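Weekly puzzle thread! Below is a chain. First person to post its structure in token form gets bragging rights.
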Amino acid sequence: MSNRRITNNKVIFQNIPWEYPLAGARYKAYEKDGKKLRLVEFTEKFIEPDWCNKGHIGYVLNGQMEINFNGKKVSYKAGDGIFILPGEANKHMVKVTSGTVQLILFEEQ
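Winning reply:
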């Protein structure tokens, strides 16, 4: 069945449509039992409208970006892991520093 999103515990991203929440950002998501797996892409056109207070665990597949943690900027590139706890103390904003960034994020709902 070509529209199946998961088979034998394998998420089939090619069968999941892209969602476009903001200019310069798109993602594909699979959700089940309060867990979410997202394939995310940001381009240099992406501008965060506000600070994000959500927690994120992920892996940068390609590209380069920096995350501003309330004034402290940390650079990420392909092969880097991301581990951000939720809450005001860890508020953050993403900025792409080179081309397109693609990452995988694991999130609780």
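Puzzle host: Confirmed. Bonus trivia for everyone else. The longest strand covers residues 93-108.
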